[in-house]
TrEMBL record:
InterPro entries: Isochorismatase-like_dom, Isochorismatase-like_hydrls, Isochorismatase-like_sf. Belongs to the isochorismatase family. Pfam families: Isochorismatase. The keyword Hydrolase applies. This is Isochorismatase.
Length: 183
């Protein structure tokens, strides 16, 4: 069984910049998983007001809410307080009871939650596919003071070079795993 892990499709992130291309890909992948009765798990990152008073994801804030259109598509919504979807959450239990052996990772922010959840999934023994262009980040080259930095490409390259996590672009995902291929 496969599971799609959709990291943090939350108002506080999605209002920061134009993620229309990423959201279109994520919606299509979710639809693909639902059409094949595969598991869809959404994550909701929650920051505490004590530690992160300026975060758009502070517990109870409007920004911490999951983008409404995604809520009805989830089999599970997993709250988390760290970048990893596995750290102090019910994710591993959910995946085990559903007999999942392969997870696909999409969502936000590429270099934090998507990266850490991908690595966590590998460490827990799952096959992992990271769909690079179905992730996005509010950060850019200025955030890291690295002119020319393409965050998605950097994270995708690091994971790909690991040779333990499959990294695909959306078109490659459709070619290899998409439901049109499996009809």
């Amino acid at each position: 069984m496969n599971a799609l892990l959709v990291l943090d499709p939350q108002i506080g992130i999605l209002k920061k910049k134009d993620f229309s291309e990423e959201l279109t890909r994520i919606r299509t992948i979710i639809s693909d998983f639902k059409d094949r009765d595969q598991l869809v798990v959404l994550f909701q990152h929650i920051d505490s007001a004590d530690k992160f008073p300026n975060s758009p994801l502070v517990e109870g804030s409007k920004g911490s809410k999951i983008f409404p259109e995604f809520i009805k598509l989830a089999d599970y919504i997993v709250p988390k307080r760290t970048p990893s979807g596995f750290m102090n959450t019910e994710l591993q239990n959910i995946l085990q009871k559903s007999n999942v052996n392969h997870v696909f990772v999409v969502g936000f922010n590429t270099e934090y939650c998507c990266l850490f959840t991908s690595l966590g999934a590998f460490e827990k023994g799952f096959d992992v596919t990271f769909i690079e262009d179905a992730t996005g980040t509010v950060n850019d080259e200025k955030t890291y003071e690295m002119p020319g930095l393409d965050i998605r490409d950097m994270v995708g390259s690091i994971l790909n070079w690991s040779r333990v996590i499959e990294v695909l672009y959306y078109a490659d995902y459709v070619e290899k795993y998409g439901h049109k291929r499996n009809r």
